[in-house]
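Troubleshooting: if your tokenizer reports a length mismatch, compare your output against this known-good record of 193 residues.
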Amino acid sequence: MRRLKVIEHVSLDGVVQHSVDGDDFPYPDWNVPFRTPEGRDAVLAMHGDRFDLVLGRHTYDLWARFWSTVSGNPMADRINAATKFVATHRPESLEWGPVEPLGPDVAEGVRRVRASDGPDLVLCGSSTLTSTLLGNGLVDELLLIVYPIVLGTGKRFVAEGTPGRSLALAETTTTPAGVVLSRYQVTGALPAA
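Known-good structure output:
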């Protein structure tokens, strides 16, 4: 069975939104000042040498416009080689591949993919999909890249109403720029009071 890990760049107050997510967001490229070679290498290691992707349609379209034009870069080469499993209502318009739609029931589509042979799955940048998959108990690991900044506004990592989950810290490291990279194992549902 494949494992599904969510890798997300997030502010201290849980914001994952970037300028490409909407032109009314006041903090474009908020994480750029914190990028370092050490951070890049740690993020590459988080992804692994080989993986497939689970993406929401919005993230897929954004990434297709950028990553499909990049080559000779370790991250680009891995992303372009990965099969992209996409949550979409318009599967006929998926062009950047290899690609497969998840189908009308996204949770069931991810269950099917997880049960198939292949490399581990990585979900990045699709916060709506992250909440859906966390809520359905389909996420094995959360890898959070937390930047030392508070934004105060923007789309959050997990949507309001997502069922609670218990986590166990597996490892953590800090870059020279103060970015904390933490890997958590999802251990189960959080018991309600």
